[in-house]
Amino acid sequence: MCDRDHLRRWASEALDRRTFAARVGAVSGVAALAACGPTVSNEGAASSKDGAEDMLAIEERGVSFATPDGEMDAFFAYPASGAHPGVLFWPDVAGLRESKRNMARRLAGKGYAVLVLNPYYRDVAGEQFADFASFIEADGFTKVGPWRGKHDAAAIGRDATAAVEWLDAQDAVDTARGVGVQGYCMGGPLAIWSAAGVPGRIDAAASFHGGGLVRDDLPTSPHRLLDEVDAALLIAVAQDDDAEDPEAKRTFSEAAQEADVPAKVSVYAGDHGWTVPDSPAYNAPAAEQAYVDLLRLYDDNL
Question: What is the pTM of this model?
Fold first, then answer.
């Protein structure tokens, strides 16, 4: 999972702050530009004759809504017309920021109403880090540590319930279709806890390089709550995370099988953070494959 060791390695590989910032600037717009550029995977979303990815016109806005624990702020991107399946989007440790908004915009352009949640709303509102470079420079783990400590299965279940209720009240959301949820890094467990917390509405859940999906020390470890989940799962594992703990994927797969939960658990050719455009580990081909697999999960289940 994403930890200080990852960040130290990333910072070293970046050589210096200026080099790393330049790289972030080059890749942070990838998701937004995907609408007018070719996709990497031939098995991806439908393309037009000129090779550009077909996208719907979208609208977006910042929103907030009440939860049992306070007012949550979020970013909402959705197709400009019609009603579509809703999606909850849990960011990684660096929180709500432009790279995550860009990822939501791209997904919205494929016909989903996407709500990017602020996982730290109990303590702070809005963007705390512009990108991963800022997170590293600010010793982000020290800052977010107390905020992350408030994430547990019960709290995230309350958050997800409130977020789904908000989505269901929006004209852009088709309440006759299921809701999806996706999470990155620390958001992986949050996605599974969300699915367990709202089993009547969440029909698909995806974790990308999720940390802590299998924890022996936690009674509410996500793999122990799969009997409360009524959703198809996509568990996308980073190759370096798998190298550090190869048993985790097998444990999760066995728990899903025992709970009779359909789960695709796969190791991808990318290191932790490979799906996120402003991550130092971003890997475009592997990220595109993960995106294709996410669309397939949603297309098949929502």
Answer: 0.88
47-53 contacts: CB < 8 A, separation 24 or more?
A: 53/109
Residue 19 pairs in a beta bridge with: none
**In the chain, how long is the greatest CA-to-CA distance?**
53
Say if CB 267 and CB 207 are below 8 A apart: no
Classify 26 as helix, strand or coil: helix
Q: What is the pLDDT of residues 242-292, one digit of tens each?
A: 999 999 999 999 999 999 999 999 999 999 999 999 998 999 999 999 999
What are the pLDDT digits (tens) for 196-236?
999 999 999 999 999 999 999 999 999 999 999 999 999 99
**What six digits make up the tokens of 302?**
């929502």
Judge contact between 181 and 90, C-beta under 8 A.
yes
Residue 162 contacts residue 72 (beta carbons within 8 Å): yes
Measured between alpha carbons, how far is 238 from 198 in angstroms, rounded to an integer?
27
Structural Rg of the chain based on CA atoms:
18
Do 17 and 137 touch, CB atoms closer than 8 A? yes
